[in-house]
Structures are given as C-alpha cells and as structure tokens.
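Structure first, sequence second, as always.
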C-alpha cells in the first residue's frame, strides 16, 4: 500500500512539474506576444499623421487652395447667353446650403457680370460641404460612426480626477484626435478619399457643363487640374484639420445679425475681404477714412469664401486664421 501511495505522489509531482514547465513556456510566449504587439503599435503610431499644424501653415494652405480654385474658375470662357437661367437650374444639383443671393437687379451688370465670383462660391461651397463640413473626409457611413462616438463621449460623466470641465473636454478632444489619426492611417482611407474626389470631379464637371460657353472647353485638362491642384490639396488640408488637437470653425456669415438687410458697413472692412462687383477688386479702407464705422458702404451680394477660425479652449479666445471674402455692390455715391 505504501508503495502505491509513493508511486501516486511521484506521478503527481511529475505532472505538477510538467504543468509548471508549460506555464512557464506560456508566460514566456505571452510576454513575447506582448512585446511584438508593442513593437507593432510603436511602428503604427510612428506613421500616424502628426499634430504639427501651426496657424501659419493652415493659413497658407487655405489661401493657396482659394487662389487655385479662383484661377481655375476664372479661366473658363464667358457664358454666351442665359447665364442666370443656367446658373439657377445647375445650382439645384450641387448647392451646399441655403444661399440668399441679392436680387438680379442688385448686380451692377447683372449676374453674368460676376460670373466668376458666383461660380467660385458654388464650387467652393460644394467642396467645403463634402470635405470640411464633416468630421473627416471619406465614406459617409464612417463619418456617421465617428461622429456618433464623439457625441456619445461628450455625454459621458467625467471620472473623478477629470471633474474640471476644461480637463475633461481636453481629454475628449485628445480621444477624437487620436481616433481620427488612427482611422486615416488605414490603407483603405486613402482609397476611399480618392474615390470621393473622383466623384466630386464628375459632379463639378456636370455642373459646369450646364453652361453654354463662348469657346470650347478642354474638359480633360480642366478635370485633371481640378483633381491635382484643388481637390487633392483640399482633402489633405481637411484631413490635417480633422487630425489636429486644435478645433476649427468656419463662418459663412449667414445670420441676419451680420448684415442687417444685407447692408455692408465700413466696420466690415476690418473683419472681411470685401470685393466690389463693378471692379472685381478689393475695396480699400483708405477711401472711407472720414466715415464712421457704422456708415453703410454697399449691399451684400454673396459670400464667396467663409472665414476660418481656430477655436478657443476656454482659457483663450478663438483665433482668426483667414478672413472671409464677400462680394458687394458699392454705393453709387462712394
């Protein structure tokens, strides 16, 4: 009997030693997997977009984008006839928001006299709606999911230690930035944005094709330049803004409080770039030195480009990155 018990204990000790050995090997393997995972994470993070945006770089990219689009539109030939009818019908297919244009008689030479400005406004508005007025460029379903996650995060009750509102909002903003940075690092993201830009080229091509131009348009050249000089840089800038820890705000000045009865005053010259519909040039402040800030100088026709702001963080006020651009009919007596 004693021998049987000793044999049993010996067998159990052997099995226990074997189990300990297996556990040791499993722990080693687990540690190796953790190390490998950490290395992969480190490599992945190294390739994520970095948050190195400065106000100056955002300003320069935005201004360059505006100049490229304005030049691209201005190089279209004049519309031979029926500009207003074609514009109104074509606008319904692509318009990005409710736009209150001045009445046709408000334009000094009629709407055709500001053909480039009107076409530029609609073109940028379309680009803005699809690339900038979203959490990040890309498929709408992905945007919907990311936006819902961001909104749900903002509704969560702060944990102890994050009770200070600014700290909590900073944590949410950091989560948003990290999540978007990880999302845009996916190989599928670039492909989806390329597809989106290709569709935008097609939409804008169809929009401009509704007009009867005085000369033949080289559509292949226009489409290639649209993709290379405008849409690709726009998508890149939009992605950078989305990934940034900073938050940005666009202002289209649609609220009535900005322009009561569409009246543009001298004070607007300090906060906006104001273009004269007659001359197509920037209105200079010098000629209005003797006027009070509230003095009317013209009527608003259209907001061509919105202003871009970097939002404040609760401790600092928001920063103007670039002024908005508006087109006015200057008063005849000025």
């Amino acid at each position: 009997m004693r021998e049987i018990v000793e044999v049993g204990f010996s067998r159990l000790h052997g099995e226990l030693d074997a189990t300990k050995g297996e556990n040791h090997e499993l722990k080693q393997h687990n540690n190796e997997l953790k190390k490998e995972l950490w290395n992969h994470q480190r490599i992945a993070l190294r390739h994520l977009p970095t948050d190195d945006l400065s106000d100056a770089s955002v300003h320069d990219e935005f201004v360059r984008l505006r100049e490229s689009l304005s030049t691209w539109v201005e190089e279209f030939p004049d519309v031979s006839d029926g500009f207003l009818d074609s514009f109104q019908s074509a606008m319904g297919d692509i318009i990005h928001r409710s736009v209150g244009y001045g009445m046709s008689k408000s334009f000094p030479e009629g709407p055709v006299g500001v053909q480039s400005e009107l076409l530029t406004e609609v073109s940028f508005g379309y680009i803005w709606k699809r690339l900038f007025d979203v959490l990040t460029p890309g498929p709408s379903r992905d945007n919907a999911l990311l936006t819902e996650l961001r909104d749900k995060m903002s509704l969560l009750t702060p944990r102890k230690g994050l009770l200070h509102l600014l700290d909590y909002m900073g944590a949410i903003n950091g989560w948003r930035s990290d999540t978007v940075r990880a999302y845009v690092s996916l190989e599928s993201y670039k492909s989806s944005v390329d597809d989106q830009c290709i569709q935008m080229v097609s939409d804008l091509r169809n929009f401009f094709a509704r007009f009867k131009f005085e000369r033949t348009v080289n559509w292949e050249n226009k489409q290639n330049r649209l993709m290379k000089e405008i849409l690709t840089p726009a998508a890149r800038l939009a992605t950078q803004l989305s990934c940034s820890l900073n938050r940005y705000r666009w202002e289209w000045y649609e609220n009535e409080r900005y322009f009561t009865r569409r009246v543009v005053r001298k004070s607007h010259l300090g906060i906006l770039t104001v273009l004269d519909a007659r001359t197509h040039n920037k209105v200079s402040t010098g000629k209005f030195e003797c006027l009070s800030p509230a003095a009317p100088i013209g009527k608003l026709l259209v907001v061509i480009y919105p202003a871009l702001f970097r939002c404040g963080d609760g401790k600092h006020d928001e920063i103007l990155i670039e002024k908005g651009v508006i087109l006015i009919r200057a008063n005849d007596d000025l």
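Margin note: The first helix runs from residue 2 to 46.
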